[in-house]
Design a protein that fits this description.
By secondary structure, the chain is α+β, with helices and mostly antiparallel strands. Helix content is about 40%, strand content about 30%. Strands 2-3-1-4 form a 4-stranded antiparallel beta sheet.
Length: about 100
């Protein structure tokens, strides 16, 4: 199962503590090592960011959201879109 995630800051970027931003990036690197995260990055203009996940089930999506430092410290608002990829799914499936 694939999902697109949009995370929007709940405060202006200049009010977001850099240590929390780094904790969020470290969290995403951990998801990448687990094989759950395919790609991530900030939007321009930088109101937040997005990422593409490959997960086994919806419960994993909930866990990912709930354990992100941005959620724990109420810095970011998650929007999770489960994506039923049809065209190109074989290419996504090959990405490790």
């Amino acid at each position: 199962m694939y999902a697109l995630v949009i995370v929007r800051y709940r405060l202006p970027l200049e009010e977001v503590d850099e240590a929390l931003r780094e904790a969020h990036r470290e969290y995403l690197r951990g998801l990448k090592k687990q094989g759950l995260l395919i790609a991530s990055g900030p939007f321009q203009p930088h109101f937040g960011g997005g990422f593409l996940l490959r997960v086994p089930d919806v419960e994993t999506l909930d866990r990912i959201r709930d354990h992100d430092p941005f959620t724990e410290f109420k810095i970011g608002q998650y929007e999770i879109l489960v994506w039923d990829v049809k065209t190109g799914v074989e290419d996504l499936d090959r990405i490790a």
